Amino acid sequence: MSEIKREVLTWERFGAATRELARSVVDSGYEPEMVIAIARGGLIPAGALAYAIGIKAAGTLNVEFYSDIEETLPDPVVLEPLLDTDAVIGKRLLVVDDVADSGRTLELVLGLLRRHTPEVRSAVLYTKPRTIVRPDYSWQETDLWINFPWSSQPVITPRTISTTAARIATSGPV
């Protein structure tokens, strides 16, 4: 059985990718006053971009859409805690996510924020060819499933901790 081909983003490539993405924002002349991360996937890229372009004001909008690899809910759903929209009124915003896959999450978030301020742009690490929303800034395009360094390892649970400890006890360090 052959393994499915995937785009693999390492921590090292992530550092270079966010610097290149930041450069494209700066080179465009856009000067955001606040970075808004789409959680969870956009949290780390948004933080890296905010540092790279020198923006201290940051917020988060929590949206759930993917339930598993290539499995989604019927529609993206905004989760609590909610963003304080009074804080974004009239501000130039940069909305950041890890990927514009279907584009539906980005479409939802951009629509919500544009009710409070007209200057909203988007940045993602990856854009998929099928997206319904073309981000203003994107580092790379791919049609592959992406393994991000922050989400490609299994979730740590009490069970995985005890399994790892048992392996170490019987066979030495992992």
Note the beta-strand portion. Answer: 25-35%
CATH architecture: 3-Layer(aba) Sandwich
Whole-number tally of structural domains: 1
Q: What is the β-strand count?
A: 8
Number of helices: 4
Low-confidence stretches: none
Q: How much is the radius of gyration in Å?
A: 18 Å
Q: How far is the first residue's CA from the last residue's CA?
A: 26 Å
Shape: globular
Largest sheet: 6 strands, mixed
Mean pLDDT score: 88
Q: Write out the strand line-up for the largest beta sheet, numbering strands in chain order.
A: 4-3-2-5-6-7
- CATH C-level class: Alpha Beta
At the fold tier of CATH, the topology name is Rossmann fold
What helical percentage do the residues reach?
25-40%
Order of helices and strands: EHEHEEEHEEEH
Q: Helix- and strand-based class? A: alpha/beta
What does this structure look like?
This protein is α/β, with parallel strands linked by helices and 174 residues long. The protein has a single domain (6-171), classed as Rossmann fold (3-Layer(aba) Sandwich). It is 31% helix and 30% strand. The protein contains four helices and eight strands, in the order βαβαβββαβββα. It has helices spanning 11-28, 43-53, 104-114, 158-171; strands spanning 6-8, 34-39, 58-68, 71-79, 93-100, 120-127, 137-141, 145-147. It has a six-stranded mixed beta sheet, sandwiched between helices. A two-stranded parallel ribbon has the order 1-8. Helix 1 (11-28) packs across helix 2 (43-53). It is globular, with a radius of gyration of 18 Å. The chain starts with 5 loop residues before the first strand and ends with a helix. The model has no long low-confidence stretch (mean pLDDT 88).
